[in-house]
C-alpha cells in the first residue's frame, strides 16, 4: 500500500507535489514558482479565467496548506470554472482535488473525478493535467490494492514522458513511481527511479523537490536497515525545508528523522525532534501529524520502560485517530497499547486490545498488519498455555514476514546505493562549484590575478572534498554492520590484526556469545532478537573505553579488543556491559527476564606478537568452557568466573 502509516509524512510531501505539476500555462507557473507572489483567493465577482488558473496553480504548489483545505478550495474553484464555462480551469481544479482525495483515501470520490475528467484532459491534450490525474489514479489504485491497474498507470505515465518538455515535471513522475515501487518493496526499481528524479531536480536546482527526494531516499535506506545513511539524508532534507521556511514540510521530515533516531536508540535526539514535530503540526493544525508524533514519543517511553507514560500517550493517539477516521493510525496506536499492557503483565487488557487489532486488520486487509496480529495472537495463546495454537500463530507470523528480497538487499541494492550516494555527492559538489563561480565573477572586476589564485584554491578544495567524501562513504559502507551500526566482521578483524602487530601494548581478545539467543528468536520473534543485538551494541558503546573496540563477529557473536587489560579488568568490563544491557527496556522482551552472555578471553602480552586467528581460537576454547560451566560466565586462563549473580 502506498499510504502505509509509518511513511505517511513522506508520501504526503509527494502527493502534495503531484498536484503541483505545471499547468499548460507555463507563464503562470514561472510567475509563482520563481518569485514570492501569492495570488489572492478569488470570488465570483473578482474571477477571471487567468486569476482562477493562477489560484489553482498556487494552492497546488503550496506545501503549507493541509490536504483537506486544498481539496475544499479546489472544489470551489471547480464549481466556479464550471459555471463560467472555463473547461481547462475546471479540469485543473478537478485534478488538484482528486490528488488530495486520493491521499486522504476518499477513494470513491477521487475515482469519480478521475473517471470523469481524465478523458476530457486526453481529448483536449491537456498533457500536464492528464499527468496529474494519472498520478492520482496511481495513488488510488494502490490504496485499493489494485496492482494491475497501478502498473497500467505507470506505463501510461512513462509513455507520456517523451511528450513533456518540463524536466521538473518528469522528475515528479519518476519520484511518484519510485514511491510506488518502494511501497511494493521493489527497492531496486525504487532506487533506480529515485536516481532519475534526483538528477532532474539537481539540474534545475529545485530545492523543494530535492529535499523531497532526499526524504524518500532516507525512507528507503531505513527499510534496508542502513539507519546511519537514512539519518544523514533526513538531516539534509530537514535543513532544506527549514531554509525554505516551510513549516508543514519541515514537520514531515522532522517526524521521519525522530522515529529513525528512536529506532537507532538515540532517544534524547528522538524526543527533541518529535517535540519539534508536535510544535509544527499544532501550528499548522495537522491533527494526524500531531497524533503520529505523540505515538512516536510513546514508543520511546515503552522502549525505556516508562510504560505508564507510554499507555497514556498511545491512548491519546488512538482516540485522535478514531476521531479523525485514520484506520492505520488507530491500528498502530492499538498495537502500542497491546505491547505496553503485555509488557506489564496486564494480560486481560492486552487481550482487549488484541480484539481491536483483529477487527482493524480485517478492515485494512494488509499482510503486514495480519503478520503483526499473528505475533500478538501467538503471545496471547502462550500466556493461556495453549502452546499448540501459539506455535500455529507463530508459524503464520514467520510465513507472513518472510523477506523475499533479502538477496537483492545484499547484492543489487547495495550497488545501486553506492552509485546513487556517489552521484549525490557529485551533484552537491557541482552546485557548490556553480555558487563559487558566481562569487569569482564579482572578484574578477577587482583583480584577475586574485581570481586565478582563488579559483585554483577552490578547485583544489572541491577535489579534495570529493575524494574525501567518496573515500569515507565507501569505507563506512564496507566496514559497518547494517543492523547495529557496530563494526562488522571485516572491520573488527582488521583492527585486531593491527593491534596484535603492535608490540608496545598488550591486547586482550574477548569472544562473546549471547546465551540462548536462538530461544529468544523462537520465543519472542526475530524483531525482538534484533532489539537484543542492537541493545548489546549500545551497551558496549556506553561502557567500553574510547580506545577499546568491538564488532559483530557473526550472528550473535561479538569480538572485543581491549588495550592493556588484565583478566580482572575484563571481568569488570563484562559485568558493566551486562548491567547496562539489562537496564534497557526492549520491545517485546519481558522486563523481568535477564539477558546473559558468555565469553572467552585470550591475552596478547606486550613485546610479543601473536596472530589474531591464534588468539581468537584460544578465546573460542575458553568460551566453550564458559558455556559448559552453565553459561553466563567468563572463560579465563585457569578459571571460569560468573558474570551475573542472581
Automatic annotation (TrEMBL):
Q: Name one Pfam family in it.
A: GGDEF
* Key word Coiled coil present: no
Spell out the InterPro entries in the cross-references: Diguanylate_Cyclase, GGDEF_dom, Nucleotide_cyclase, Rev_trsase/Diguanyl_cyclase, TPR-like_helical_dom_sf, TPR_rpt
Q: Provide the leader sequence positions.
A: 1-22
User: Which SMART domains does the UniProt entry name for this protein?
Assistant: GGDEF, TPR
GO terms of molecular function? diguanylate cyclase activity
Q: What's in the keyword line of the UniProt record?
A: Membrane, Signal, TPR repeat, Transmembrane, Transmembrane helix
TPR repeat start and end residues = 211-244
Q: Does the keyword Thylakoid apply?
A: no
Q: Which domain of life is it from?
A: Bacteria
Enzymatic reactions: 2 GTP = 3',3'-c-di-GMP + 2 diphosphate
Cofactor (UniProt): Mg(2+)
Q: Where are the transmembrane segments?
A: 451-468
GGDEF domain sequence ranges: 505-639
Instruction: Name the Enzyme Commission number(s) assigned to this protein.
Output: 2.7.7.65
Q: Which NCBIfam families match?
A: GGDEF
Enumerate the PANTHER family for this protein: DIGUANYLATE CYCLASE DGCM-RELATED, REGULATORY COMPONENTS OF SENSORY TRANSDUCTION SYSTEM
Q: What is this protein called?
A: diguanylate cyclase
Q: Which organism is the protein's source?
A: Shewanella maritima
Amino acid at each position: 500500500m502506498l499510504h502505509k502509516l509509518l511513511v505517511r509524512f513522506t508520501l504526503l510531501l509527494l502527493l502534495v507535489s503531484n498536484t503541483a505539476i505545471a499547468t499548460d500555462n507555463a507563464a503562470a507557473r514561472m510567475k509563482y514558482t520563481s518569485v514570492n507572489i501569492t495570488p489572492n483567493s478569488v470570488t465570483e465577482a473578482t474571477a477571471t479565467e487567468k486569476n482562477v488558473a493562477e489560484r489553482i496553480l498556487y494552492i497546488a504548489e503550496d506545501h503549507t496548506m493541509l490536504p483537506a483545505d486544498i481539496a475544499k478550495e479546489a472544489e470551489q474553484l471547480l464549481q466556479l470554472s464550471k459555471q463560467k464555462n472555463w473547461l481547462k480551469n475546471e479540469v485543473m481544479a478537478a485534478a488538484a482535488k482528486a490528488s488530495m482525495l486520493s491521499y486522504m483515501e476518499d477513494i470513491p470520490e477521487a475515482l469519480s473525478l478521475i473517471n470523469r475528467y481524465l478523458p476530457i484532459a486526453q481529448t483536449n491534450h491537456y498533457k500536464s493535467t492528464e499527468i496529474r490525474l494519472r498520478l492520482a489514479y496511481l495513488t488510488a489504485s494502490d490504496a485499493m490494492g489494485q496492482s494491475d491497474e497501478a502498473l497500467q498507470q505507470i506505463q501510461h505515465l512513462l509513455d507520456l514522458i517523451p511528450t513533456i518538455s518540463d524536466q521538473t515535471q518528469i522528475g515528479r513522475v519518476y519520484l511518484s513511481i519510485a514511491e510506488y515501487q518502494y511501497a511494493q518493496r521493489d527497492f531496486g526499481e525504487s532506487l533506480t527511479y529515485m536516481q532519475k528524479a534526483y538528477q532532474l531536480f539537481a539540474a534545475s536546482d529545485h530545492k523543494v523537490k530535492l529535499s523531497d527526494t532526499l526524504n524518500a531516499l532516507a525512507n528507503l535506506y531505513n527499510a534496508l536497515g542502513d539507519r546511519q545513511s537514512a539519518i544523514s539524508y533526513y538531516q539534509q532534507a530537514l535543513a532544506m525545508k527549514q531554509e525554505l521556511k516551510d513549516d508543514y514540510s519541515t514537520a514531515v521530515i522532522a517526524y521521519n528523522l525522530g522515529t529513525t533516531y528512536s529506532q537507532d536508540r538515540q532517544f534524547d535526539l528522538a524526543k527533541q525532534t518529535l517535540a519539534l514535530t508536535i510544535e509544527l503540526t499544532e501550528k499548522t493544525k495537522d491533527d494526524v501529524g500531531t497524533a503520529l508524533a505523540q505515538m512516536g514519543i510513546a514508543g520511546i517511553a515503552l522502549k525505556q520502560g516508562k510504560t505508564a507514560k507510554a499507555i497514556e500517550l498511545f491512548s491519546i493517539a488512538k482516540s485522535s485517530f478514531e476521531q479523525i477516521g485514520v484506520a492505520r493510525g488507530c491500528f498502530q496506536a492499538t498495537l502500542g497499547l497491546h505491547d505496553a499492557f503485555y509488557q506489564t503483565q496486564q494480560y486481560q487488557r492486552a487481550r482487549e486490545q488484541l480484539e481491536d487489532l483483529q477487527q482493524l486488520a480485517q478492515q485494512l486487509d494488509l499482510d503486514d498488519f495480519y503478520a503483526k496480529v499473528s505475533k500478538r495472537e501467538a503471545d496471547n495463546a502462550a500466556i493461556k498455555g495453549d502452546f499448540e495454537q501459539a506455535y500455529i500463530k507463530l508459524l503464520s507470523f514467520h510465513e507472513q514476514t518472510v523477506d523475499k528480497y533479502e538477496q537483492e538487499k545484499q547484492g543489487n541494492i547495495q550497488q545501486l546505493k553506492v552509485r546513487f550516494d556517489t552521484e549525490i555527492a557529485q551533484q552537491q559538489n557541482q552546485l557548490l562549484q556553480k555558487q563559487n563561480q558566481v562569487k569569482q565573477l564579482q572578484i574578477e572586476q577587482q583583480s584577475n590575478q586574485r581570481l586565478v589564485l582563488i579559483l585554483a584554491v577552490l578547485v583544489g578544495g572541491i577535489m579534495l572534498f570529493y575524494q574525501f567524501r567518496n573515500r569515507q562513504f565507501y569505507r563506512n559502507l564496507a566496514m559497518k554492520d547494517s543492523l547495529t551500526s557496530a563494526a562488522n566482521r571485516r572491520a573488527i578483524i582488521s583492527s585486531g590484526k593491527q593491534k596484535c602487530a603492535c608490540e608496545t601494548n598488550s591486547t586482550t581478545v574477548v569472544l562473546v556469545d549471547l546465551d540462548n539467543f536462538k530461544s529468544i528468536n523462537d520465543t519472542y520473534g526475530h524483531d525482538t532478537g534484533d532489539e537484543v543485538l542492537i541493545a548489546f551494541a549500545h551497551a558496549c558503546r556506553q561502557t567500553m573505553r574510547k580506545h577499546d573496540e568491538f564488532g559483530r563477529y557473526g550472528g550473535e557473536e561479538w569480538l572485543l579488543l581491549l588495550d592493556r587489560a588484565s583478566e580482572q579488568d575484563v571481568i569488570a568490563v563484562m559485568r558493566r556491559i551486562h548491567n547496562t544491557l539489562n537496564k534497557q527496556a526492549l520491545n517485546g522482551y519481558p522486563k523481568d527476564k535477564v539477558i546473559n552472555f558468555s565469553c572467552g578471553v585470550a591475552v596478547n602480552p606486550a613485546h610479543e606478537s601473536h596472530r589474531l586467528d591464534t588468539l581468537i581460537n584460544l578465546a573460542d576454547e575458553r568460551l566453550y568452557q564458559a558455556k559448559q560451566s552453565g553459561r553466563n560466565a567468563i572463560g579465563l586462563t585457569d578459571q571460569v568466573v560468573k558474570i551475573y549473580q542472581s
